[in-house]
Amino acid sequence: MRHTVQMDPEYRLSRIRHDGGRLIDLAAADPVAKVPACPGWSAARLLSHSGRVWNSVALHVERLTPEPISGSEVPRADEGLEVEYARTAHAKVVAALDSADPAESVWTWAGDGTVGFYLRRMHQETLIHRIDAEQAAGEPSEVAAVDAADGVDELMCLLLPASVSNAPAGSLHLHQTDGPGEWMMNGVDGNVVASIGHEKGDAAIRATAADLLLAGWQRRSLEGLEIFGDRAIAEEWMTLSA
User: For the residues 89-96, what does the mean pLDDT come to?
Assistant: First the structure.
């Protein structure tokens, strides 16, 4: 189930441009900086990863392929050239998404088989890795509540149901404190079943949308957040994306 609020494609593109640019600039300034949320990753490795994702998405959107494109077709970064690689890939994915109709059909790995899936995915992927670059550089910046709530919704209602087969048996209610977002997560035979709205769960977390997003992607701990009920269930749910 997807959130009922749909974002303007131009807004998403503006965020991909901004966040991708900030990610690249920060990582380029200190390529050997460690990325706290990704053990073993340097900022250069973050650039290589982000560039490869951008290149892959650009190819899928450009071709509107009904089948996945082989990884062998996706350019890789040469050692020492990660900055240039990421800048080129970033420009390529922005151009591809800007030229495509979000309603066009294309292969995706999750439930929404349209270009709109990739537009949303790149918005959120680039945001999370912007945060990684900021954490590596020690230069955090604000995560807008509207972007964060959309990211929580994408993670909980689209990505986890498409990728998880070992969901916790207990239920979790997420409550956004700086907006109207509420999500209910249930595990049914190992599958993630998500819904939007207020229900009582075995555990509940109340926090800003940004904190819910960062916790859901393991970019922050649950410390300092309001947690009710079974904390172990809350922790189990919030580490599913790992």
Answer: 98
